[in-house]
User: Which sequence fits this backbone?
């Protein structure tokens, strides 16, 4: 579990192809201070498991499903990445509840005259966004300013631009998106309840109200 508060900008040092994914070597002196094999570190919002660690760098394996669903498939040596260690019990929740389970990607469209940064997002994900709700962009916890059917906008403060990859992104760049997990759970529960009610209504209409037909 993470909070979406980036601890440092790391650097991709190597990308090694594997049979079912790839192995990344990442330089990150802050997040490796107390890291060990098996720990979780969010890399651009993707929760990954530490394989090896030492000398201020660590390696992680990225499986095919993660490559398909996120921007990790296009990552290359020299790229900067947002890094955050998993939160510990008792830590302050400075952002919001972030799982590190990327739902998909969005495309940066630019900054408008009001200073809002706009992203294009698939409709299958945009339905989970609400004005002033939370969203995770490349591992950064942010507040939605405007939520539309095909995109959303956020307001980036100078500190976020300076300390994360979002200050380096250009129009057309792809970013990882994780929507609020509570919204997804509520949708599933509501769908099950509506289906149950519909089934009950059909059953009641099919028994003719309990009245026998005349013969």
Assistant:
């Amino acid at each position: 579990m993470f909070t979406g508060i980036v601890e440092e900008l790391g650097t991709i040092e190597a990308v090694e192809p594997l049979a079912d994914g790839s192995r990344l070597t990442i330089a990150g002196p802050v997040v490796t201070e107390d890291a060990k094999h098996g720990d979780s570190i969010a890399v651009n919002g993707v929760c990954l498991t530490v394989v090896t660690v030492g000398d201020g760098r660590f390696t992680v394996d990225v499986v095919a499903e993660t490559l398909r669903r996120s921007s990790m498939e296009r990552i290359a040596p020299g790229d900067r990445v947002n890094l955050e260690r998993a939160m510990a019990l008792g830590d302050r929740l400075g952002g919001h509840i972030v799982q590190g389970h990327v739902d998909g990607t969005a495309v940066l469209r630019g900054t408008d005259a009001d200073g809002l940064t706009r992203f294009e997002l698939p409709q299958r994900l945009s339905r989970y966004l609400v004005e002033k709700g939370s969203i995770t962009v490349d591992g950064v916890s942010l507040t939605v300013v405007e939520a539309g059917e095909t995109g959303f906008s956020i307001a980036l403060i100078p500190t976020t631009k300076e300390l994360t990859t979002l200050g380096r992104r250009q129009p057309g760049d792809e970013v990882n998106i994780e929507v609020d997990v509570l919204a997804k759970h509520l949708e599933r529960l509501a769908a099950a309840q509506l289906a149950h009610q519909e089934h009950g209504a059909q059953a009641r209409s099919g028994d003719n109200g309990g009245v026998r037909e005349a013969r």
The longest strand covers residues 8-18.
